[in-house]
Amino acid sequence: MFAAILENMPSDELVIHDDVTLRDLAPGEVQVKIAHSGVCHSDLSVMNGTIPQQVPCVLGHEGAGVVTDVGDGVTHVVPGDHVIIAFSPPCGVCHFCTGRNQPNLCMTGMIAMATSQQFRRGDTVVG
């Protein structure tokens, strides 16, 4: 699999690698083959060090693609479903998601975004 990886921070360069494999899915996770993705200002802010992030990392959080695999317990999508990936994934149960109908303010989703996802580059586990 290909990935554009931020290897150092701050940096104005993403390095393209063609030897990236993902770790096994955990329960509740979904794997998506990305068809389209954008680079937005928050990605640039990570690259320039304004938003600290553990490196190396794969940036991007706005995309569209096709579900290729699902972890245990996932029932809302199946492989083959076309999906979009939101900036801040709503949890669906907090006050902002249910009481105020403002899922864009969901702090649970924001916290989940800050976790490092593991992948393998060659023989090295990253993240």
TrEMBL record:
A GO term for molecular function: zinc ion binding
Name of the molecule in the record: Alcohol dehydrogenase-like N-terminal domain-containing protein
Pfam families associated with the record: ADH_N
Keywords per UniProt: Metal-binding, Oxidoreductase, Zinc
Position of the signal peptide: none
Domain Alcohol dehydrogenase-like N-terminal: 27-111
Co-factor requirement: Zn(2+)
InterPro entries recorded: ADH-like_N, ADH_Zn_CS, GroES-like_sf
Organism per entry: marine metagenome
PANTHER family: ALCOHOL DEHYDROGENASE 1-RELATED, VACUOLAR PROTEIN SORTING-ASSOCIATED PROTEIN 11
